[in-house]
Amino acid sequence: MKAAVFNGPSNIEITEIEIPKPNPDELLIKNIRIGICPTDLRYYKGLRKESTYDNPMFTTGVNTYGLSGHEVIGEVVGMGNEVRGFEIGDIVTHETFTYCGQCKYCNEGLINLCENKKDIARGYSEYYKVPYKFAYKFSKSVDPKFGAFAEPLAVVIHAVKKVPQKKLAIIGAGPMGMLMALYSKHIGKDVVVIEIKKNRYEFARSLGINALPPDISADPSKVKEFLHEGIYGVISSIGGRGAIENAISVASDSAPIVIFGGTYPPDSIPLDLNSIHYSEKIITGSTDHTREDMKESMELIEKKALPLDKLVTKEFEFPDLVNAFNAALNGEEMKIQVIFR
Questions:
Q1: pLDDT tens-digit profile of 99-141?
Q2: Domain annotation covers residue 158
């Protein structure tokens, strides 16, 4: 099979390797489609060090195949003899990680914080395997373009749940910010997007999302003035010191500030502790998703409840993966998906 092999930062190649053999409890999946995630780009650029292929045992080379690809949908083409509940031909997606089901976090349903969580993402390959207990089955009629949004929509659902207020401001109108806006609008929230790039502001408006013009978005005092009516929680869909500082600044008193986007390389911000003490603002993070989030995501996808296809502005064939990554890094496209034949 063909698979993306990591040879170092910004250096991957599509290589021919053996199709993996599933263990007794694993499914063998033939890839159909995958979305490029910002996390994948950080791995590709060498900005993250905790991934499978950055492990000292697997620094570079064939064992790194598949990189960190996880926004996947595929078809079951093989399975081990211990697999239950799946058949050849099933259309599936899966968790990006395994969890133990026994630690203090798993016992509370917080599988995203499992103490023994392990990354199993291998999606930039024609075939990959996954333990069946961490796979989810779609109907065979599901649109793959929608199905590849299962994981990113699940993590968005997880983040939006952290804002109980009806009014929500989202910093960043990139792929994840737009996914948040569409989902939040679907569940009845009053959403406004804060975006300094003109093309992304215009894209948000084209989908009927209320977005502040770039000149207002670039000035936190003007944003606060716009948000002065009502209690607004804020989600920063992008990482970075500036974005997080703006989120804290513009959030309403008593409201949560959700740090959704990762910051690489790591950074820190100064914080006036009294400003939090007297305002009762809540600063929290959001990472991955729970099983309930994934189930809700898949239900929305099956119903085509959200116009997810409109977020996909560019598609590439798998052999052209390097160009797909570079196009995603360029930032001119919204969501890029890679197709397998």
A1: 999 999 999 999 999 999 998 999 999 999 999 999 999 999 9
A2: no
Q: How many domains does the chain have?
A: 2
27, 78 Cβ separation under 8 angstroms: yes
CATH number of residue 19's parent domain: 3.90.180.10
List, in order, residues 6 or more apart from 19 with CB less than 8 Å away: 1, 28, 126, 127
For residues 145 and 21, membership in a common domain is answered with yes
Residue from 304, 31, 318 nearest 141 by CA: 304
Sign of CA dihedral 181, 182, 186, 190: positive
Q: What is the pLDDT of residue 122?
A: 94
Q: Are residues 87 and 208 in the same domain?
A: no
Using 50, 70 and 90 to split pLDDT, how confident is the model at 51? low
Q: Which residues contact 236 (CB under 8 A, 6 or more apart)?
A: 171, 172, 243, 244, 246, 247, 257, 258, 259, 260, 261
d(CA 87, CA 305): 27
CB atoms within 10 A of CB 323: 13
Q: Which residues pair with 339 in a beta bridge?
A: 33, 317
Question: Could you give the CA distance from residue 180 to residue 156 in angstroms, rounded to a whole number?
Answer: 6
| Cα 296 → chain centroid | 15
Q: What is the pTM of this model?
A: 0.96
Instruction: Tell me, yes or no, whether 276 and 217 share the same domain.
Output: yes
Q: In this model, does residue 229 exceed pLDDT 70?
A: yes
- Residues 267 and 309 placed together within one structural domain of the fold: no
Structural domain including 256 reads: 163-285
pLDDT for 68-96, tens place per residue? 899 999 999 999 999 999 999 999 999 99
**209 assigned to some structural domain:** yes
Q: Tell me whether residue 274 is exposed, middle or buried, using C-beta atoms within 10 angstroms of its C-beta: 0 to 12, 13 to 18, 19 or more.
A: exposed
The domain that holds 248 is classified in CATH as 3.40.50.720
